[in-house]
Amino acid sequence: MSEALQKQTDEDASKDAFFARIAEISQEMIAAHGKDFAMGTLVLAARWIASDKISAAPAPH
Fold first, then answer.
1. Number of structural domains, the chain?
2. Is residue 46 assigned to a domain?
3. Fewer Cβ close by (within 10 Å): the C or N end of the chain?
4. How far apart are CA 24 and CA 47, in angstroms?
5. What is the rounded distance in angstroms from the CA atom of residue 7 to the CA atom of residue 21?
6. Within a domain: residue 30?
7. Is 48 exposed, middle or buried (0-12, 13-18, 19+ CB in 10 A)?
8. Which domain holds residue 22?
9. Predicted pLDDT of residue 54
10. Which residues of the chain have pLDDT under 70?
11. How far is CA 58 from CA 9, 18, 22, 28, 30, in A?
12. How confident is the model at residue 53, as a pLDDT?
């Protein structure tokens, strides 16, 4: 297997892991506060990322 193909496979695995984590967090938010809250939170996070505000957010405790 070529190095470039292996790197892509590693990247895909990393992305899949992030999607799995987001799915788990989304399910928890839906269970606790409903679909509207979960969707609003994810949209707000996307807007923060798009406007570079996410880097200004405080680190989790």
1. 1
2. yes
3. C
4. 21
5. 21
6. yes
7. middle
8. 3-56
9. 74
10. 1-6, 56-61
11. 32, 21, 20, 22, 24
12. 82
Which alpha helices (DSSP H) does 3-60 contain, by range? Answer: 3-33, 35-50
Do 25 and 37 contact (CB within 8 A), yes or no? no
d(CA 39, CA 18): 17
Contact 50, 58 (CB under 8 A): no
Q: Please give the Cα distance from 61 to 58 (Å, whole number).
A: 9
CA distance 18 to 16: 5
Measured in degrees and rounded to the nearest 5, phi and psi for residue 33 equal -135, 0
End-to-end Cα separation, the chain, in angstroms: 42
pLDDT at 60: 64
